[in-house]
């Protein structure tokens, strides 16, 4: 890991990985400089559009979070916090299991189709209209 950070061009990694890291480095330094040629080079190295999208998304989010933390002065967790978080993730994973639609409401009554429809109709109209449309 440190060799990649110190000298990407000579780090002991595959050319495929080197190509992706160079793409991300360029994106982090100046995202407006990424062009079709950069995407084509990454594809030629074996990276799919989905993999590039994922890499861009993850690195962009981390960059955002780091900038936000730096600017707001949010402090780091103590080592014990990371340890407890690791135990929780190891035993429970990242997300809770979805709860079944057939579970009972408080008091033992199951939700009816009418109650579900009523709940859906309370969403704002803008949210309904935008569902299913992609931005871009």
Question: Any overview of this molecule?
Answer:
The structure is a single chain. This protein has helices at residues 2-6, 15-29, 36-44, 49-72, 79-92, 113-121, 125-130. By secondary structure, it is an all-alpha fold. The protein has a domain at 2-74. Helix 2 (15-29) crosses helix 4. Mean pLDDT is 76; it is low at 114-136.
For the structure shown, list the relevant keywords.
136 residues; mainly alpha; 7 helices; extended; disordered C terminus
Summarize the entry for a quick read.
This protein has 136 residues and is mostly helical.
Q: How would you spell out the order of helices and strands?
A: HHHHHHH
* Largest β sheet strand count, sense and barrel closure: none
Termini separation: 35 Å
- Measured by DSSP, the beta-strand proportion falls in under 5%
Q: Helix- and strand-based class?
A: mainly alpha
| Unreliable segments of 5+ consecutive residues | 114-136
Overall number of strands:
0
Tally of separate helices: 7
Radius of gyration: 23 Å
Q: Average pLDDT, to the nearest integer?
A: 76
Shape category: extended
Please give the share of residues in helix. Answer: 55-70%
């Amino acid at each position: 890991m440190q060799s990649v950070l110190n000298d990407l061009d000579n780090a002991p990694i595959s050319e495929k990985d080197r190509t992706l890291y160079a793409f991300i480095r360029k994106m982090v330094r100046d995202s407006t400089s990424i062009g079709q040629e950069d995407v084509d080079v990454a594809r030629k190295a074996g990276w799919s559009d989905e993999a590039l999208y994922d890499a861009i998304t993850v690195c962009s989010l981390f960059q955002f979070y780091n900038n936000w933390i730096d600017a707001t002065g949010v402090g780091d967790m103590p080592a014990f916090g990371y340890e407890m978080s690791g135990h929780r993730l190891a035993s429970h994973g990242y997300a809770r299991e979805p709860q079944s639609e057939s579970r009972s409401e408080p008091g033992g009554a199951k939700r009816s189709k009418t109650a579900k429809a009523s709940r859906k109709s309370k969403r704002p109209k803008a949210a309904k209209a935008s569902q299913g449309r992609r931005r871009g």
